[in-house]
Every structure is written in structure tokens, then in C-alpha cells.
Amino acid sequence: MKKTILATILTLSLLNSCSNSKMIITNQGIGKLILGQPISQNYDRDNFDVTLDSKKNIKTIIINSEKHVTKDGFGVGSSLQDLEKKYPNSNLNKKNNASKGKHSIIDLGQSIIIDSIIFVDKNKDNLVDYIILHKTD
Questions:
Q1: Which of 25, 21, 45, 23 shows the shortest CA–CA distance to 35?
Q2: What integer pLDDT is reported at residue 101 of this predicted model?
């Protein structure tokens, strides 16, 4: 009985550590969430928002957790200045608005795009608030 309880505790600890592990953000996706691929039913909805296309494949991934980063260590909480220093050919877009016709609906903050990864600073404090990965058609 003690061996069964110990095995159960070890298994749950291992599963918990795997789900909390840091994943690398690429322009293709993060972990098992890959742009253009079917979605896994079991993904961390607290750290990711996902939209699907008409074929039920992943179209957009929004990352809002500080625990996941790019291969260069950039993620939510990184400074836009550090991104600009590392990638001097990138352009900081200081005005992102959603609009309908000529009317601006919402201010989306500022962003910088590096290798098709969009780093967004919603509140304009020069820190990344979320990251967008998007599959273009």
C-alpha cells in the first residue's frame, strides 16, 4: 500500500513539473501548440489564448505568461529597449489601433515584431504584456 501511495505521489509530482516547465516560443508556435496544426485538447488555458481557423487548426496563439521565452530569453515582462538592442533592424510600432473604417475603436499599445513574433506592450510602460503568434494565409 505504501509503495502505491509513493508511486502515485511521484507520478503527480512529475506531471506537475512537466506542466510547469518553460517552453520555447518560436515563430511556428510553442510546445505542442503549432500554428496551422490541429489543437490539443489539453493545453494550459491560463497561459495561452488560441484561435482556430475554419478547419479547426491553430491560427493565433497569445502568450500571457512570463515563464515562456524565445531562444534568446525574451518573453512577457521583457523590455522593448532590450529587444531593440538585440535586434537593431526591428521597428517599434508606437501606435497600434483597431479601427473600423476611419474610426479608431481601441488603442492596442505599442509593439515590436521580430521574426514574425509580435511582442505587445499594451499599457505603454515599455514592458511586453503579451506575445502574439499568428499564421498568415
A1: 25
A2: 78
Mean pLDDT of residues grouped by 10 in the chain (137 residues)? 49 45 92 90 87 93 95 96 92 77 79 93 95 88
Outline where 61-108 has alpha helix (H).
80-86
In a domain, 1, yes or no: no
For residue 5, tell me if it sits in a domain. no
Boundaries of domain holding 76: 23-134
pTM of the model: 0.79
The number of folded domains in the chain is 1
Residue type, 74: F
Instruction: State the cell numbers at 31.
Output: 510546445
**118 in Cβ contact with 131 (< 8 Å):** yes
Residue for cell digits 537593431? 88
Measured between alpha carbons, how far is 126 from 77 in angstroms, rounded to an integer?
Answer: 9
